[in-house]
Amino acid sequence: MGKHIKDSTARLSPINDSALSRESWKIFQIMAEFVEGFERLASIKPSVSIFGSARTPTDHPYYQLTVDIARALSDAGFSVVSGGGPGIMEAANKGAFGGRSPSIGLNIMLPHEQSGNAYQDVSLTFRHFFSRKVMFVKYASAYVVMPGGFGTLDELAEILTLVQTGKTRRIPIILVHKPFWEGLLGWFKQTLATEKMIDPADLNLLTIRETPQDVLDAIFEHYELRGFEPSAEEAEMLSHL
Fold it and tell me: Which of 3, 11, 50, 216 has its CA 20 to 30 A from that of 22?
């Protein structure tokens, strides 16, 4: 087996100079995304990132619930950050756009192009998911997770992993609408925790709420004994995201 691996490696083609140059220069494109994101989002604090399905139609109850949650957050003084696209993302931006605080869209360029919604005070467009993900986390005082698919689960797993491993500060992670999420949370408890894939205490990183006021209460309860600004230790942690 070892001989086969060695022989195969020896037959690898040399790297094409133009391809190598293209990959090397790509770092500047990535840097530009981070620089623009940091410069334009540094002043939006406190903010709440809202996630959910791009496929949710405007007449769906989840859409209107998201509009109401985002409007409540905006009127309470939170900038609202979404992925900038349709569905739940549009509902989040729409609710915030009608409120007193900024509505931010972190758009992503996709092969099947996602069109940005019309409710963004601040609009950024990313080529790379990983730089976009940093922007969702870096300035967020809370995550509100509406019903959604793989993309929503990806963002949920991302923030849970970062908090669990101490790579970012503890913030409220709020799942909205218990009937949608209880099966997943049951699996977390009955499978992941039971088989010791996670610590049972990790389940406390999540909370479920139903109404806009419930969401606001969960956030303000978390910060009741402290300000929204990161502590010196947390700021250092966030600098290494």
Answer: 11
**Predicted model pTM:** 0.87
Summarize pLDDT for 104-159 with one digit per residue, the tens: 999 998 776 567 899 999 999 999 889 999 999 999 999 999 999 999 999 999 99
Specify whether the CB–CB gap between 99 and 128 falls below 8 A.
Answer: no
Distance CA 49, CA 168 (A): 15
38: number of CA atoms within 13 Å, CB side?
A: 10
Do 176 and 209 touch, CB atoms closer than 8 A? yes
DSSP 13: P
At 24, which helix (H) or strand (E)? Answer: helix 17-41
Q: Is the dihedral of CA 210, 213, 217, 218 positive or negative?
A: positive
Q: What is the pLDDT of residues 21-44, one digit of tens each?
A: 777 788 888 899 888 888 899 999
- Structure-block tokens of residue 125: 């467009």
Question: Domain 47-239 carries which CATH code?
Answer: 3.40.50.450
Q: How far apart are the first and last CA of the chain?
A: 40
Here the contacts of 132-136 (C-beta below 8 Å, separation 24 or greater) are 132/33, 132/83, 132/106, 132/108, 133/158, 134/34, 134/37, 134/241, 135/37, 135/41, 135/81, 135/106, 136/49, 136/81, 136/106
Report the distance separating Cα 234 and Cα 223, nearest Å.
14
What are the residue ranges spanned by the domains of the chain?
47-239
Asked if residue 164 lies in contact with residue 188, where contact means CB atoms within 8 angstroms, the answer is: no
